[in-house]
Design brief:
The chain is an alpha+beta fold. 18% of the residues lie in helices and 27% in strands. The strands form four sheets. Strands 4-5-2-13-14 form a five-stranded antiparallel sheet, with no helix packed on it. A four-stranded antiparallel sheet has the order 3-6-1-15, with no helix packed on it. A four-stranded antiparallel sheet has the order 11-10-9-12. It has seven helices and 15 strands.
Length: 370
């Protein structure tokens, strides 16, 4: 399910890296206050970040494995440069050629007192806007973006909902717009959901509970697009800097990215190629940007985001991969719906990546060039 099955540029499996300075982000003069906002990402300004993930585990009582996602998406808006890691376990870089996933896999023997792993990925990103000309794509990639997965079935209620949402729409752009508007109108951000959600769209539709987080809401968009015959995919990643447009919910403090994971979406339009989408962030701003839940997309705070996130997104975010049904090498567990968080497993099964008492990890970013 991944965008990019090509080998990436230079990779460094060493600890030493060029010194970097912490991100300092000044809101541009164009940015407005949150009461009178502007949201209009524009391509052109590349920035380079060092994104560091460190995992510290309790002393191992059995053989333990850890998997850390690495940026694998290489495209016109992101360039992974290299990875550097250190650990007191046996670590290796792994790439899945089929789905384009990259990860650092680490094995710890029984009896390691302070198991740890730290990896720093250097990546360049830029904001993204709608392409004016079609970008050709490999037909096999488009077929991959139309397939059903475990959490994105395309029959039954998913198919029926897609047909209802796109009733009367002609062509891929009209269908994508109709589904985007349907998701914004019917799904909502639910802050109590753990992590980024599970992305089980069949259950969401069957229960009528369309509340969730980004991996739920954007999966709903992707699944409905696929069921309507429009290639689409989730893009799993993490926010690495504040938003330049004054929206707190659309950025993250670079000093602490733990919990800043965010799933976006793309749809392939014949006239434009892969096109950025993020109805989940529209829902997030509606629910959490202000203390009150704003339910009107025409509200001055919401309207710019609602318009902007159809076709564009801000480059304060790093993509890991676009993969579903990820089987981690060496794991005894079932395939994951997606890989966006550090994962660990011992003889008793998965460690809870949301439980800081047993699975401690920290993520931070440093901007090294503008």
């Amino acid at each position: 399910m991944d965008l990019h099955r090509r080998s990436l540029v230079r990779r460094v499996a060493s600890v030493g890296m060029a010194a970097a300075f912490p991100v300092t982000w000044a809101v541009s003069a164009r940015a407005q206050t949150a009461d009178s906002p502007r949201f209009a990402p524009r391509a052109g300004d590349w920035r380079t970040f060092d994104v560091t993930t460190r995992v510290d585990l309790p002393a191992t009582t059995s053989a333990t494995r850890v998997w850390l996602p690495l940026p694998a998406v290489q495209t016109g808006w992101q360039l992974p440069i290299n990875d550097a890691f250190t650990s007191n376990g046996k670590a290796r870089l792994i790439a899945d050629g089929e789905q384009g996933v990259r990860m650092l896999a680490v094995e710890f023997a029984d009896g390691v007192q302070q198991p740890f792993v730290e990896v720093t990925s250097r990546v360049s990103t830029q904001s993204r806007e709608r392409a004016h000309h079609r970008q050709a794509e490999d037909p096999a990639t488009l077929r991959h973006a139309l397939r059903a997965t475990r959490l994105l079935p395309l029959d039954g209620i998913v198919r029926a909902t897609a047909l209802k949402a796109t009733h009367g729409a002609r062509g891929d752009e009209a269908k994508a717009r109709a589904i985007y508007e349907w998701v914004v109108a019917n799904a909502w951000r639910e802050p109590e959901v753990k992590g980024c959600g599970e992305g089980d769209i069949k259950t969401m539709l069957e229960t009528g509970n369309l509340g969730g987080k980004c991996a739920d809401i954007n999966a709903l968009f992707v699944g409905l697009c696929r069921a309507a015959g429009v290639p689409a995919r989730d893009v799993y990643g993490i926010r690495v800097a504040p938003s330049a447009f004054g929206y707190k919910q659309l950025g993250s403090s670079s000093a602490s990215l733990t919990g800043a994971q965010h799933c976006r979406a793309e749809v392939y339009l014949q006239a434009h190629g892969w096109t950025a989408m993020d109805p989940a962030d529209v829902a997030k701003v509606m629910r959490q940007e202000k203390p009150e839940w704003i339910k009107d997309v025409a509200h001055p705070l919401i309207a710019p985001v609602h318009a902007g996130l159809y076709g564009a997104w801000e480059g304060n975010w790093m993509a890991y991969n676009t993969a579903h049904d990820v089987k981690l090498p060496g794991s005894r567990g079932k395939a994951l719906g997606f890989l966006m968080y550090p994962m660990a497993e011992d003889a008793d099964g998965w460690l809870d990546q949301y439980d800081p008492a047993t699975f401690i990890y920290r993520i931070s970013a440093r901007q090294i060039s503008a």
